[in-house]
């Protein structure tokens, strides 16, 4: 895994034949990118059940993984976090590179294999909305410098922007992603739910959401903050609390407001 | 305020000469839209202090409001919620229309005036990022049907999309906007803060944020939900909680995760 060959102008990677194990949201998105990448040999995507996966402009056959691994230089383990260790221990990967994609698990999680690395794309993936890796920041970690270089080349061939992060930094990235993505998405669900419960169209919020996120990216979320908590308007906060149906939602609203109040009382 | 005149193809509104009182985020954004609208006579924007406000492609002179109101058919009160009632009571608006823009205050807040209405744009406004009202959903309420029609015409001339909402519905809209906009923005700030504290670039989150909101709008936030809480992955939740610095942040993380767990245990 060290010599680099250029053939007919196509850059051939030392890690060239890649198989994906796992056919969930991440697996099928990675399959899309690997199949479209030039200079890589996609050895297929493997899951528990054989089936055809159809994207809007693309399809791929998911093969059944039996007791034998397909032949590959590199295995992408697009598996649930908690099955990474036991899956890795149950196969002999020989000299092939074994890669996991988890934000929350350390590189050592798959240490039963000889050559290991992490390829963590900071993005949210859904099987019913396939996206490429272009412009996705991918955070890499590997047990050796040559493996890290191989992985950088591989990520480059997929169009991803690479950075390095050790296992603890990656867990912080994952935490940040959960706050910014999973929790924001849930708040949007709660908001859409309130509108629908009031006989108002849920999509009335769309222009607001577009502006919110465009603004947070452009001027930074600290400066973009507005609203009753930012102004310390306890009167409006009390009236909102009065509208919320459950103690759990009222507690959530109160804690988020207090966190905003606390943020702006300490800074600036 | 009822006859409609068409002059040289320009639709002249019965409510034609509009003055804005208040030169904060909302006031200057409304001034931009009113000054650019055809068929309306913008009587100017008034605040506590005289000054020139400069947007990127536009500027306006903010005039000082003394003891006398400028002459207008309609006054937009772009004032803090808590000063709406006392401001309205301290002037004689005669037969002119008095309009407030608050999501949280009832129409009755300004009942000391003779003709009153609410024009609530469901959008977040900043003075350093001026936007037009095109495509902004504006929720209207008025004390009489003719006033409501006048207001609809006025909102139409500003390019806004109009809907009707009574004072209680509007408070729910405002609550939904706080959840979806203010609270999401704060979570993005917390996420950017975690990255910066770990020596990682805060803008690494940008592609994730773009995908999150594009997905929530396209397939709905309920179906777009991913993450440890959605999967019930208490192991990862515990590791994230271990990284958070303060009891307040840990409480916030726990409540948001529980709200997601609760949402998906009851439905689907």
UniProtKB/TrEMBL annotation, chains A, B:
Domain DUF2520: 136-259
InterPro entries associated with the record: 6-PGluconate_DH-like_C_sf, DUF2520, NAD(P)-bd_dom_sf, TM1727-like_C_sf
Membrane-spanning residues: none
PANTHER family assigned: CONSERVED HYPOTHETICAL ALANINE AND LEUCINE RICH PROTEIN
Protein name from the UniProt record: DUF2520 domain-containing protein
Organism encoding this protein: Robiginitalea myxolifaciens
């Amino acid at each position: 895994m060290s010599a680099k060959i250029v053939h007919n102008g196509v850059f051939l990677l030392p890690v060239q034949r890649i198989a994906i194990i796992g056919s969930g949201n991440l697996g099928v998105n990675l399959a899309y990118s690997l199949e479209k990448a030039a200079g890589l040999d996609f050895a297929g995507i493997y899951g528990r059940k054989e089936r055809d996966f159809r994207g809007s402009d693309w399809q791929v056959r998911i093969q059944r993984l039996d007791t034998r691994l397909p032949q590959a230089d590199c295995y992408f383990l697009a598996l649930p976090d908690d099955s990474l260790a036991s899956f890795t221990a149950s196969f002999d990967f020989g000299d092939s590179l074994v890669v996991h994609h988890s934000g929350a698990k350390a590189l050592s999680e798959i240490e039963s294999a000889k050559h290991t690395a992490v390829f963590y794309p900071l993005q949210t993936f859904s099987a019913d909305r396939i996206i490429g890796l272009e412009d996705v920041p991918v955070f890499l970690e590997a047990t050796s410098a040559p493996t890290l270089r191989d992985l950088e080349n591989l990520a480059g061939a997929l169009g991803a922007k690479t950075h390095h992060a050790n296992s603890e930094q990656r867990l912080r990235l994952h935490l940040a992603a959960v706050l910014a993505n999973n929790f924001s998405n849930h708040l949007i669900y709660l908001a859409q739910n309130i509108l629908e419960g009031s006989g108002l169209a849920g999509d009335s919020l769309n222009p607001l959401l577009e502006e919110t996120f465009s603004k947070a990216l452009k001027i930074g979320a600290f400066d973009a903050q507005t609203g009753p908590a930012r102004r310390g308007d306890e009167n409006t906060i009390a009236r909102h609390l009065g509208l919320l149906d459950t103690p759990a939602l009222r507690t959530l609203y109160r804690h988020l407001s207090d966190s905003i109040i606390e943020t702006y009382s300490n800074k600036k």
